[in-house]
Amino acid sequence: MKFGTVLFKYASRSLTRHTRRTAISMTGVGVGCAMALIALSWMNGAFEMQVRAVAESGSGHLMIVHRDWPAMRENTLRLTDWEETLAAIRTTPGVRACTARARANGLLAFGNRSSGVQVMALLPEHESEVNRVVSRSRIEGRYLNEEDPGAVVIGKGLAKRLNVELDDDLYVTLPGTDDIHSAMLRIVGVLDTGSQDLDLTICHMTLANLESITGIPGAGEITMLLKDHNDINTVKERLETKMPGNNLVITWKTVLPALASGMQGDKALMRLLTAIVITVVALGIMSAQLTAVLERRAEFAILSALGMKSGQITRIILVESLIIGLGGALIALLVGGSAAWYLASTGINLLYFNADALGPSNILLDPRIYGSFGPWLIGYAAAISITATVAASLYPAWKAAQIDPADALRTQ
Amino acid sequence: MAVTITDETLVHAKDVTKVYQTGEVETYALRGIDMEVKAGDFMAIVGPSGSGKTTLLNLIGALDAVTGGSLEVLGKDISKMSRRQRADLRLHALGFVFQAYNLFPVLTAQENVEFVLELQGVNNNRSGRAREVLDRLGLLEYANRRPTQMSGGQQQRVAVARAVASQPRLVLADEPTANLDGENARILLDMMRDLNENQGTTFIFSTHDPRVVAYARRVVTLVDGKVAKDVVKENDTDGGV
Prior knowledge:
The structure holds 2 protein chains of 2 kinds.
Chain A: H1 6-14, H2 19-59, E1 62-66, H3 69-72, H4 82-90, E2 95-110, E3 113-122, H5 124-130, H6 132-135, E4 138-141, E5 151-155, H7 156-162, E6 169-175, E7 180-192, H8 196-199, E8 203-206, H9 207-214, E9 221-226, H10 232-240, E10 247-251, H11 252-255, H12 257-295, H13 297-305, H14 310-345, E11 348-349, E12 368-369, H15 376-392, H16 394-401, H17 405-410
Parallel strand pairs in A: 3-8, 5-7
Antiparallel strand pairs in A: 1-9, 1-10, 2-3, 2-6, 2-9, 4-7, 5-8, 6-7, 11-12
Helix pairs in contact in A: 1-14, 2-12, 2-14, 2-15, 12-15, 12-16, 14-15, 14-16
Chain B: E1 9-22, E2 25-38, E3 42-46, H1 53-60, E4 68-73, E5 76-77, H2 83-93, E6 94-97, H3 109-119, H4 126-136, H5 152-164, E7 170-174, H6 182-199, E8 202-206, H7 210-215, E9 218-223, E10 226-232
Helix pairs in contact in B: 3-4, 3-5, 5-6
């Protein structure tokens, strides 16, 4: 049916017979779709920020680990030629920053107090480029230097638990290849992330320091941040061709599978709720359109008597729905777009709900979450609104096409 | 002017029956109709309420299917036609005028006429042709009016314009004057009679209106679903409405 034809005029003007009903239908579609847009804006924005928070809280977007690490999660595994690999990653397109690390599970003790920790040995000159726990936290004292033998930086919560302060000496016990090794470390800095839970886990020393204590040389992981997290698979493929020996490229989802599936679950739940809202709206539209069809039963009989085919009658109803859908999309853009813009520009302060700002798996979340806003909203508003209304009108349209003209005229 | 009734048979009904089934109850609307309608006829089907006038008209108009017997319209057995084929027959060969006018309220008079032309796939100067039909029937001044802006008589004349816009062979009019006063009924019947005489359009009316009967050249009377009388008037009159 072409725009400007009499058939189109008939379909479009039919919506003016009950302007209030048409306006209510459009508003219903618009508000339902606006809710969907708000949910999508929030979901997309929050997901993106969560991925960034995850990546910048230690795991990076991508990580190079020993081939056996995903299955064993063993901290003593070391990379092949880690320095060359790190240098190669730095020149890989799409990589924003990278650094190497090693981890070891050990025990810190001071006087009669002790605490189990995961020591993170790192390259101090690069760590702050990839780790917001370092770059965003307040520090008492100083952070580690490139050459800093015997120095350690711990979290404020851990310092409190061990009852230590700056310049105190801690006794550390760490496993080596075949034996347990111990050393004295001087506290040169105390990090305050703002999260008590996270502060209890922080224990940083230089990579060289860990090597000298445990006797295990090399780095166990290389972490990198990408310029755009959407390029994760492209960069991963690029890096896979450069990996020597036992080195393996994995994504943050492999590092934190529970968190990744939790985020997917959140997304699925949000989509389900959105689908429920749209379904309820669609059922409302179906009811309104069915009423409109039954009211115009005699008119459809006349259309049929004049020689109109079932398919053409169906198209009339679908065009009417399409116009309702377009009107709904405009309302959705107005309402949902404004709300999405607010979410994107002002955001929601998470500290209002969670004073700790700590996400699952020790992720240091941004205190304010922003929604997503962009031209995609137009496409989504049109797609959701039009699809919902047209789909909801299929049954009324079919019903209209099935009207028996003789019967409808007899009972007119 | 006397119209020429040719030998061409437009409608051939043979032992046509129509039964409506409501639950287990069967209602006989037509009980064996035998009838022929020739091209150029100007015919009224009369009879008391429930005699089967509208049912017969609906069958001839391919709006409904016969229960028994055979009914050929323009040489096609409608009982053997699909829903789509019957729609095609209505679109290209038949015109309808209804008691309640049944113009589309959201369209103007011109658009109501143009609508049929568009359905027929006429692409060339559709609105011009619609205006031409309205002009020919003296309705051009109503071209841009919607049905709610016209009187009943005006609406029914536009309905006739819509029915004849596609130049159908046969126009079926169900109680066309039932809602019209004497003057409007006369104008309408004159108009249809003119179309019959000058364009050769065949008309079949179902009616109990004596004004229509007076205009008709042939009157078929139905009683209890059967043809009780089929009278062709010897001396045609102007109707005397």
